[in-house]
Write a structure and sequence with these properties.
Helices cover 57% and strands 4% of the residues. The chain is built from 8 helices and 2 strands, in the order ααααβααβαα. It has a two-stranded antiparallel ribbon with strand order 1-2. Helix 1 packs across helix 2, helix 5 packs antiparallel against helix 6 and helix 5 packs across helix 7. It is globular and about 65 Å long.
Length: 216
């Protein structure tokens, strides 16, 4: 696979910083692929070279693109502290345990031959689940969690299952013949999370989970 140009790498880093300002972490290689596709599309539409098309991706355009990406996953409450959101979903303890295990796998797979910061989203969710469990009060075998946490975790686990399916490197201590079983387990874990999320339709407007305004 060809290495990205210095422009793509630098611009992807800037886009990553814009996403971080609104609480999102996206792997660098995915941002590079996104930018490559966007530049190619602009070049084709305007009938110009890709080198010329790059001039249209200034800082304002990157900030707009960051917000566009955030809006696409608004149900995950990008930019919000999950611990401050209403804990409306009762999560059964077996599902909690399976989710933590799946997120550990996601973090491990993200760290194989990748940027060392890429496991951060999975580790952050594990930490949040730990705090929610610690703060759990009551005798019922469930832990109440915010709905966006389930949505974030399900997407991350689904993405990891897709990476396994497409042949991503496995950790050194995982045998190759485990790949199909790992993929199925991850998909099953994500499906359990999706099943807990009420079907209330897409939220819109300036509700609780709207994308935050641009930081100063």
């Amino acid at each position: 696979m060809p290495r990205p140009s210095s422009w793509v790498s630098t611009t992807a880093s800037t886009l990553g910083e814009e996403l971080a300002r609104i609480g999102l972490t996206v792997p660098t290689d995915r941002l590079e692929a996104l930018l490559t596709d966007r530049v190619a599309a602009v070049a084709e539409q305007m009938r110009i070279t890709e080198r010329t098309a790059r001039q249209y991706f200034d800082h304002d355009t990157l900030r707009t693109l960051a917000r566009e990406l955030a809006l696409s996953i608004k149900e995950e409450a990008p930019g919000a502290d999950l611990l401050t959101l209403p804990r409306t979903i009762p999560m059964p303890l077996p599902t909690l345990g399976a989710t933590i295990a799946a997120l550990v796998e996601a973090a491990a797979l993200a760290g194989v031959d990748k940027d060392p910061h890429e496991p951060a989203p999975a580790m952050a969710l594990i930490s949040t689940l730990g705090v929610l469990t610690r703060e759990h009060a009551g005798d019922l075998p469930t832990v109440r969690v915010p709905e966006p946490l389930l949505t974030r975790a399900a997407r991350l686990i689904e993405n990891t299952a897709a990476l396994v399916h497409h042949g991503c490197p496995l950790p050194p201590d995982v045998a190759e013949d485990v790949r199909p079983h790992l993929q199925k387990a991850l998909r099953d874990d994500a499906a359990r999370l999706r099943a807990l999320i009420p079907d209330t339709g897409r939220r819109s407007g300036s509700g609780l989970w709207a994308v935050p305004d641009d930081p100063p």
